[in-house]
Amino acid sequence: MAPYEPEQGTTDAEELSAGRRKAARYLVPVAVAGVAAATIGLVPALASGGDPDLPELTAQELIEKIASSDTEQLSGTVKINTDLGLPSFGGGAGAFAPGGGGGEDDKGSAADPAAKLLELASGSHTLRVAADGPDKQKVSVLDDAAEYSVIHNGDDVWAYDSATNEAYHTKDTGKSGHGSGKKGDLPKDVPATPEEFARQALKAAGKTTSVKVDGSAKVAGRDAYRLVLKPKDAGTTVGQITIAVDAKTGTPLKFTLTPASGGAAVVDVGFTKVDFAEPSASTFDFKPAKGTKVTEEDGGSARHGSGGFKGAEPAVNVIGEGWTSVAELELPGGQGLPTSGSADVPADAQRFLDSLGDKVSGKFGSGTVFKTRLINALVTDDGKVYVGAVTKDALVEAANR
Fold first, then answer.
1. Do 99 and 303 touch, CB atoms closer than 8 A?
2. Of 281, 267, 338, 354, nearest in space to 130 by CA
3. What are phi and psi of 269, to 5 degrees?
4. pTM score, two decimals?
5. Under a CB-based contact definition with an 8 Å cutoff, are residues 254 and 267 in contact?
6. For the chain, which has fewer Cβ within 10 Å, the N-terminal or C-terminal residue?
7. Which domains does the chain have, with CATH numbers?
């Protein structure tokens, strides 16, 4: 199916910005905070039977359709695949999360969402999701022999890990839905479904982005429009973002981010099954079984266990705007990474860090750039960090400013 209209330029993007902001505000959240990584995706498993013939829509009309979507109830299966070019984190990722990891010498819980976050940042995963309005959501991460679930039901947020028979409980103090950043001490603004990825992408779309409707597709057996966002700025690692939007409900069904370098998608998230009927009320019920280890969130600012972060979060300065914006912050203590031969880092770990990084220098001094297929970071020798979805040269330029 041919594109509906030519790629839109700066003037058109200005006209679209209000619609995008509205879309970002009203897209219905489907997952509970802390159940997925900031960049995750899908191996396509679509019910493909040829592109459907749909009425023509402009990009503005399609964004307005997303904004006006009133979907609050659904259930389904989401397939996720992420290819950042990093090794799989596996089950040990929780050790790097705030308060996560558990273990004999750690008071944390293996069911704490922060302990599970990094596991979804690489590889392929299957999620089962359900939502019934702003106060009831459930996300389950399905493994071969285990299941990890986060359930939000009214005032309560439960997480349960069947592999360890551990549960984590906190109170929803925000009462304002996923992404509010007010659910106890859970991670904030963590996308887990196409809706949430689309919301974040539309936030970034502005004068620096061209937007168009580019044909149609079948996703999870449903007719969908393809909305394509493409950065205009040189220096970003983002090639384009494609959002498949349900033709009937306006609900995003699939989100794909391809890198500027080409190749497989870095992020690809989509429904393989979806039902917009009201889920059963029992879907959101949870009561720990006898013998389950339960960790209660203490309500304080620090997480359980010695692995939690303490003190104020570092101040972040944003350099630039749009797709080439770079976040600047300082490492604790004002020192850079340990150098080769340092007693603080095992030799194997140092070799691994060296293999990921490129040494660079400039007006800022010297440092190391650590690269993935999407997010790159420059760590200077004097303890500053510059990070963004930008190229190595863009990071050095930002540090030189």
1. yes
2. 281
3. -125, 130
4. 0.74
5. no
6. C
7. 10-293 (2.50.20.10), 317-400 (no CATH)
At 174-202, the pLDDT tens digits run 654 444 333 334 444 446 567 777 767 77
Q: How far is C-alpha 195 from the geometric centre of its chain's CA atoms?
A: 11
The runs of H, that is alpha helices, within 205-345 are none
Using alpha carbons, list the distances in angstroms from residue 2 to 48, 54, 59, 166. Answer: 17, 11, 14, 52
The pair of three-digit structure tokens given for residue 78, joined into one six-digit string = 């989401």
Which residue in this structure is represented by tokens 């993935």? 372
Give the position of tokens 């904030």. 188
CA Rg, the chain, in Å? 22
Amino acid identity of residue 253, one-letter, is L
pLDDT tens, residue by residue, 326-381: 999 988 766 666 655 555 667 776 676 666 688 999 999 999 999 899 999 999 98
Q: Are 392 and 400 in contact (CB under 8 A)?
A: no
**CB burial of residue 47 (10 Å; 0-12, 13-18, 19+):** exposed
